[in-house]
Amino acid sequence: MTAMVKAEGVHKSYGAAHILKGIDLEVAPREVFCLVGPSGSGKSTFLRCINHLEQINAGRLYVDGDLVGYRQKGDKLYELKDSEVAAQRRDIGMVFQRFNLFPHMTAIENVMEAPVMVKGESKAVARERAARLLDRVGLGDKGGNYPTQLSGGQQQRVAIARALAMEPKLMLFDEPTSALDPELVGDVLDVMRDLADSGMTMIVVTHEMGFAREVGDNLVFMDGGVVVESGHPRDVLGNPQHDRTKAFLSKVL
Amino acid sequence: MTDKLDKDPGPADTPPAGAVPPEAIRAIPVRHYGRWISAVVVIGLVVALIVAFSQGNVRWATVPEKLFDPSILRGVVNTIWISITAMALGLALGVLFAVMRLSKNPVTSTIAWFYIWLFRGTPVYVQLLIWFNLALIFPILNLGFYKDEMTQVMTPFLAALLGLGLNEGAYMAEIVRAGIQSVDEGQTEASHALGMTRTQTMRRVVLPQAMRVIVPPSGNEFINMLKTSSLVVAVQYFDLLRAAQDIASTSFAVMEMFFVASIWYLALTSVFSVGQYYLERRYARGALRSLPPTPLQKIKAKLSSFSNRKAVA
Ligand SMILES: Nc1ncnc2c1ncn2[C@@H]1O[C@H](COP(=O)(O)OP(=O)(O)OP(=O)(O)O)[C@@H](O)[C@H]1O
Ligand SMILES: [Mg+2]
To answer: What is the ipTM of this complex?
Structure first.
């Protein structure tokens, strides 16, 4: 079975700042893969490389067997065109820390936008699916609201529905609950748990160790742009081997 | 807010019957002598001005007489037409050059910079004259597929359109650029992450949000355009001012005709200012939890609060 995501020696720098220093990892289909680590360790950067929002400088990154952002012919790499990169991203959903809903569209319009624009779906079909997805995240009655008329937790659930509308095979979550008031976190985590149960492959950057322990199949601890430790969440969180992991966990647990 | 102590304690200030009134403060109000004096002075000056104009050598009857003269009306229509077309051209060029200016390609961004520098840096009056006199350096226009004498091609309308439109484009480019840059980068990322291409992202996500920043100054630009368009007299375009001048030169009612033109310009700018308000309101969608009331809604609210107050009394 091909890995859903495979990273081989991934490096990323911004100018002189070397952020990712050789990441190797594999995410199996249907797996919930948690990424934890201190601030600035490169978690978001790595996530953004997976859907080519950032270009990697060295190494190889594959999603479902396809090289991300490039085409390989012989031993030469060719950059993909804008439209080809866009096509690759269709199958990868992403949920951001700050939701990034489109504020000029209602909730249901946010969810309909990509299927209509990218897949050329009819509005009727897209609207029907959007309504179903909003129902699924518990917001069936909020379709007509603009994002400013929704709470943070509701906005994030709309954002999840928006990503799901493209029927992705992989979902990336970048600290989906860290911008939320504590009492709103649960609703979003419930939706994510439900999604994991349905068999979605998910990579989740999170500080919610409870969620990681309960839902995660695999957990990677990153620090300073490298993978320090990985394994089953229960093992890494319960019995960390490295000093850096121990130091980090003692702060967040 | 007016200070309550400033007013005589009148019946309006007494609380509605039923409530136990607290002992009302009976203070001597501050006397604002300065306000009274300045009001008298200003009113005096205005009266003097009105008297001066009414006694001046103006045949006031001419103004309403000529206000709806067919030739003036034709000028009004032409002024609106050239303003709208020049603004449309300016808007299209503005979007184009703003996107070019923000492009990562150094050639396109430099060309856009140069365009903005050139057309903002020279007076629009001079630009109009250059377009109008283009035949002096290019007597024949040859586009390969189309060939004609320049004087035939460069009609007053075309000279006015190019002069005003290209100048406006340079200003609009800066306005649109500021609008695009005001949109959060997370919006572009979210759109890209959904698989939208750069063009789709610009059209569906960035520009609609940029409109909120673009519309208010564009409205001002358009209202300016209505007035600036009077410069097209220089290229023989028959606009409102030209129509007024034509009548003035035959009837010798020079000042009267300038007043006629001014009344029309005021009317046009007032009407379009109201339009601008509604346009701004439309593009505020999603940015505010609830939209500000329209003038009509405000009037209704005032009337109803007025009748409520009466009901209480
Ligand atoms: N566009 C950029 N240009 C320059 N440096 C950047 C850029 N984006 C991120 N960085 C730097 O890369 C490093 C890693 O950032 P990243 O956002 O991946 O960290 P993170 O692990 O997600 O941290 P956090 O938990 O705070 O979100 C940081 O030091 C950051 O300053
Ligand atoms: Mg981050």
So the answer is: 0.95
